[in-house]
Amino acid sequence: MESPIGFGILGCADIARKFCRAVGLAPNAAVVAVGSRSIDKARRFIADNSLPEGTVAHGSYEALLDDPAVDAVYVPLPTSLRAHWAISAAGKGKHVLLEKPTAISAAELDRILEACEANGVQIMDGTMWMHHPRTAKMGEILSDPSRFGQVKRTNSIFCFNGGAEFLENDIRVKPDLDGLGALGDAGWYCIRSILWANNYELPQTAIAFPNPVKNDAGVVLSCDASLHWEDGRVATLSCSFLAHLTMDLTVVGSKGTIHLSDFIVPFEESAAGFSFGCESWFNDLVSAWEPRPSEHVVSTVLPQEALMVAEFSRLVGAIKHSGAKPDGKWPAISRKTQVVMDAVKASIDNGSQPVQIVF
């Protein structure tokens, strides 16, 4: 039996706690090292997360990248630091699981992708909902023209009310750490869901809605935008640190509609649902729908973050043990997401002027 893929964690960010649990549940992965700028902080993180005995604490990120037991790194560092350390990891031959947004811009992401390609390492971003079996089930419906028809409109919302402490101190509102703000943190999910629903066909134009909310440092706290395709398809996205927790996704086709209210984090870990209406219309009195949208529930043994780790580790294992090539699907999807995000940001910066999307 092949040994599990050894992960090193660069930094002790809050989301890394969730990642540790995911690795513990995945059958083909293990955390072997944690790196921090303080070795004491790395040791505390190992103890607090009950990581296996023998997990090595490193007092620098460089030391972790030099650890021969580390096959892959998980990078939850602030966005402004991700390019440097992802490129450094690739240069050391470490595979890269990179939190989102993957970079400040597509140009910066290109540097990461070039380093990964040059060193033959796998890269994947940490968009966990992509790996839930519900996503695959919905994808089957979307790709069936007899049931769904052609995609016409997609609406995606991710909001949460961060509160006063968050809005004052969280790294996601600091221009030198996560300068993309709500667009980078929440909008990434919205853009990815829109691209997923449209079979990753890039829209032609992005138009930010007027009057985005920014803090005193100029970081976006709330914004909205529309995306437009040449064939008339339209999508809207809404992301905010100021509104109640909402994770809505609606995909409207010529024959059917898919809707779910928890597309990023399911209401329940072991099962996730969505509704699907197909050729619905009104009854004779126009007082009810016929037929009503059907409700679907998809169960999973492992939570979506563990499935993500398992898939990434499978790809890394194939490279390590069988000489396989890195899977280009994942970096291509990351880059498309980043390119659309760049266009939305450019439209925000240019007073809601339309911005052409060039891949």
From TrEMBL:
Domain of life, per lineage: Eukaryota
GFO/IDH/MocA-like oxidoreductase domain residues: 147-258
Pfam families to which the protein is assigned, alphabetical: GFO_IDH_MocA, GFO_IDH_MocA_C3
Ranges of residues in domain Gfo/Idh/MocA-like oxidoreductase N-terminal: 6-124
GO molecular function: nucleotide binding
InterPro entries the record matches: Gfo/Idh/MocA-like_OxRdtase_N, GFO_IDH_MocA-like_dom, NAD(P)-bd_dom_sf
Family membership: Belongs to the Gfo/Idh/MocA family.
Name the UniProt record assigns to this protein: Oxidoreductase
Protein source organism: Platanthera zijinensis
